[in-house]
CROCC protein
Amino acid sequence: QGLAAELRSLRARAEEAALSHEREARTLRDQATAAAKQRDSALREARAAARRELLEAQREARDSREGRDTERRR
């Protein structure tokens, strides 16, 4: 009976460890998903900012060219 009790105890500990590992794996998956969403959002924001900066630089270059053209015509 001592051996059977020890086996039950070992089985119970193994099941507890398996459940604990499942919970930890789920938590890590959730964290990885959240990090991926955050990364994607940051990437979208960076791309949008780069587009805005490029458009602004193009506008400034166009305004500068137009200003020079106006000066030449005078």
About this structure: The chain is about 95% helix and 0% strand. Residues 32 and 38 are 10 Å apart (CA to CA). The longest helix spans residues 2-73.
